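cron nightly-structures :: item 1 of 1
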Amino acid sequence: MIPIPDKKIADVAGRKLEFARAGEGRPPIVFINGGGPANMDSWGKVYPEVKSVSTVFAYNRFGDGHSDQVAEPQTGERVVATLRDLLRRSGLNPPYVLVGHSLGGLYANLFARLHPIEVAGVVLVDSSHPDQGEMMRNPGAVWGAVNRVVQKIYTNINPTKFSEVAVFDETASQVANAGPFPDVPLVVLTAGKRFWWLAPEKTRQTIENHQRSLAALSARGKQIIAEKSGHFVQNDSPEVVIEAIREVVTQARLR
């Protein structure tokens, strides 16, 4: 990962959150990283390239970087509320273009449903789907064994971060009970390279169906397969993410 420069610390309800802001223009582009080992630096190849497009903002959730550790269950609603508070304290007013990777995509999805007038567009980067909980619990023998090893490694790196995964089902329920996804520009970027030989065919079909359904959330949505990328599309093919952000920002400005 390439470190994002000029990080700062903000006080949100008496707790510290690390963030960075650069560029000028509207709508602001807000990066929401995934879970596990991912933090704001996972956007290091994209963030500096899009600051010429508009204002860019990235941050570390509780448990990442120099942000405070997790003090309470990090459900989606709590993550969204904290992010909204941080954005306003940082002087960024809505509407925003949300760019969410993996679990961060689930938070972007929830943010857009809870606060539709505050969202100008969304880019989902190999995003989690609210219905993937069952697949996570029953991924198949080989893939399940690999996932358990990976999660153990990640837990040792950052044990507090997995409080988000522990409440995944609750966050998924919050998405289901929130309002409809708004009619905004939406690009869903899907990784084209996965270890399919480890996964049963049912898992493959489920993932493909989930990604297509995310693109269908908005009448203005579309899906792009990042053929040369694994899960971290922003690292493997940053140009694909940059172009998707440019497209959504351009469309948002035409509204």
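cron nightly-structures :: done
The CA atoms of residues 21 and 57 lie 5 Å apart.
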